[in-house]
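Entry 14. Ran structure prediction on the chain below.
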Amino acid sequence: MPLRDSLISALAEAVTDGDHVDWPAAEARLTTSQDFDVASHLKALSTLTDRSATRPRGVTAIPRLTPLLEIVRVVAIVVSVIGAIGEGHDDEEKNGLA
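Output, structure tokens:
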């Protein structure tokens, strides 16, 4: 697997796991507009799943999702990532890059 694919895969895995991602460092390693496009979608998703983000005072913890809803959440994230990757490939085909 090329480095580019492994970086995008690692970012997608971190986002789906709800792990914190050092976005400035990750973005510095990206080389193509497609990578930046996919990473921007992942970054947006990470704001929803980053468990390490601090909460303002007075905000109680959100209860954990049931196992079924957690599976649905992960599937939704994966489908979004696949759609973003597919969109990038469609753009390449339209521009004659594929």
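The two ends are 18 Å apart (CA to CA). Will compare against last week's run tomorrow.
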